[in-house]
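Office hours follow-up: a student asked to see two folded examples consecutively, so here they are.
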Amino acid sequence: NMINFLRHITPALEKNLTASPVSNFTGKLQITLFKSGLEIDIQCGQIIDIGTWKADSFWHTPAFPDLTFLQLVFGRRRCLELTDMYVDCNVDDQSAQVLDALFPPFKGTMWLGN
């Protein structure tokens, strides 16, 4: 489950945000994954909660179809790359700055154990 995973890595996400130009961001990132959605509530650079959210519209919120959000989460693509590659991806500039700060680029190999 994406929400449980993001809650689990919250300390790392906050560390990434602290080291960025948007370190004092306050707001709610409401992200639609089309079949589901999530909301990341951030106050002064601290993640208060990560929960489910259902979009009323796909055009005024960050939108990532299918598994494209995973490319961002695991540092393979930035928001601008995803919006250039996939016509259904939509991210406003401020949300893109915060999401890119939360999920910085990662070029290494990831091994998941049991």
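And the second, which I mentioned at the end of office hours:
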Amino acid sequence: RLQEIRRLIDSMEDADYQSVARTMLERHLEAFRSIPAAKSVHHSFLSGLLMHTSNMLRLADYLSGLYAGIIDRSLLLTGTLLHDFAKEREFTFSGLGMVTDYSLSGQLIGHLVMGAQEVGEAAAALGIPEEKSMLLQHLLLSHHGEPQFGAAVLPQCAEAELLSLIDQIDSRMEIYREALAPLTAG
């Protein structure tokens, strides 16, 4: 999965987004490889975040080709990669790496805002143009789609809308996978 993610980053046409993606991946690599994507509900197992993000990146890559005249592929892939990196700080973990609770910053700020803040800081340090930084931050802040699902803002561009839908697709399909796994035919 990680090799495929690196291949997708290498295939980005926009050097600015590619630089942010590489920098953030290296910064979060250890946790990204191992932590769950959630406390419960979906991908709440070891390496769940890697699986969730990898699935989403494959969908984002496909859909960016299907909607090539509408979607900035580099922006969508970067936002998809980064969308849940702040879960590393949102949760507290057991010695075995499972999520035990929400951290104080997870409860008071949440991974959308913490993620957008970190992306803004990383983009500034890399000298990324402010508009690109703002677009990436917007994707992170809006990736839950609606305020009732935790979005800080509503998606305002095609890439943000698509990211929220891709996140919803993968999380829902994992819920079905987990529910169907113990069932026998019939």
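Two things to take away from it. Residues 1 and 25 are 13 Å apart (CA to CA). The first strand starts at residue 91 and ends at 93.
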